[in-house]
């Protein structure tokens, strides 16, 4: 099989029915090299794809060039709004811009102030990523997203601070055990707050619905049922995502910190910790977002009766968001 199959506009070059296909697709989506694409190169890609749609491609254009053009456009341009996503909030920027926050979250010996600061920063970054990559087929007032942001930050800080206070008051635990347990506090705080973040930042989709498309990409209608599925799938990825990021580094660092090299040179602990977090983040993100295809499918039998009556298609598609 050729590495580059015949180009299909708006489709993935990998099989989205399989986990491996979605994993390879999302490795393309989070590729940080697209952060360095110039405006000129972006416009060239858009022009090339427009030429494909209109049947006016110049001679000699290969499938590989078309797939690369689509990869660049999808990494930078929002599929619903057609606007550029700010660099730190693109999925391709999630790991480079999110890793310093993860390192801060997992630093040992956190004070109350540092716990609040890193949880606030993490949920602020998550909120901006969720907002920037939302399903935007139906417009919603910005104040609703601000309400969601406030709720997500409050939940993250409350859970993290509450767990830390409980650990400090656990007199049965030895100081060493307390320190070890404290390192795992970020996971339940981040996982539960991530669910709140997704639901609160995108709750307007539940009340307004999202667009569902037929086989030809035409809008059939607006569905609240599809919106519920989209949010449930996205929320699940946000629970799975922090598992390797928040659980592996504390376990690995607990072993590495006992090595003679790091005991002799404690200044190396932070750089090593950062590399461990970066590797964990790089593994966790594509694994989590590969659980479901971005353009998910749903049977018309599960949707509202008026949508089922408006189309002959048995399966419709919706943008789950990321």
TrEMBL record:
PANTHER family: SIDEROFLEXIN, SIDEROFLEXIN-5. GO terms for molecular function: citrate transmembrane transporter activity; monoatomic ion transmembrane transporter activity. GO terms for cellular component: mitochondrial inner membrane. InterPro entries: Mtc. GO terms for biological process: amino acid transport; mitochondrial transmembrane transport. The lineage of its organism: Eukaryota, Metazoa, Chordata, Craniata, Vertebrata. It is a multi-pass membrane protein. The chain crosses the membrane at residues 146-167, 179-200, 239-256, 268-292. It is found in: Mitochondrion membrane. Keywords: Amino-acid transport, Membrane, Mitochondrion, Transmembrane, Transmembrane helix, Transport. Belongs to the sideroflexin family. This is Sidoreflexin.
């Amino acid at each position: 099989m050729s590495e580059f199959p015949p180009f299909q506009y708006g489709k993935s070059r990998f099989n989205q029915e399989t986990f491996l296909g979605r994993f390879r697709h999302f490795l393309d989506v989070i590729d940080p090299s697209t952060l360095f694409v110039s405006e000129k190169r972006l416009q060239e890609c858009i022009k090339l794809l427009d030429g494909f749609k209109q049947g006016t491609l110049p001679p000699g254009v290969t499938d590989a060039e078309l797939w690369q053009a689509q990869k660049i456009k999808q990494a930078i341009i929002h599929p619903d709004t057609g606007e550029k996503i700010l660099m730190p909030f693109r999925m391709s920027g999630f790991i480079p811009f999110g890793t310093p926050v993860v390192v801060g979250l997992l630093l040992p010996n956190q004070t109350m102030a540092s716990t609040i600061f890193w949880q606030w920063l993490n949920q602020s970054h998550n909120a901006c990523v969720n907002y920037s990559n939302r399903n935007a087929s139906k417009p919603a007032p910005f104040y609703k997203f601000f309400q969601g942001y406030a709720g997500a930050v409050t939940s993250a800080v409350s859970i993290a601070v509450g767990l830390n206070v409980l650990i400090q008051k656990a007199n049965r635990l030895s100081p060493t055990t307390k320190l070890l347990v404290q390192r795992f506090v970020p996971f339940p705080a981040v996982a539960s707050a991530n669910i709140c973040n997704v639901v609160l930042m995108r709750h307007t989709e539940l009340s307004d619905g999202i667009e569902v498309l037929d086989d030809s990409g035409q809008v059939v209608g607006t569905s609240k049922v599809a919106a519920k599925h989209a949010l449930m799938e996205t929320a699940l990825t946000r629970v799975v995502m922090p598992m390797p990021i928040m659980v592996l580094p504390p376990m690995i660092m607990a072993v590495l910190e006992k090595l003679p090299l790091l005991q002799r040179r404690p200044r190396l602990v932070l750089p090593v910790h950062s590399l461990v977090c970066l590797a964990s983040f790089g593994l966790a993100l594509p694994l989590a977002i590969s659980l479901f295809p971005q353009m998910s499918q749903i049977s018309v039998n599960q949707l509202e009766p008026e949508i089922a009556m408006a189309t002959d298609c048995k399966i419709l598609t919706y943008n789950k968001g990321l």
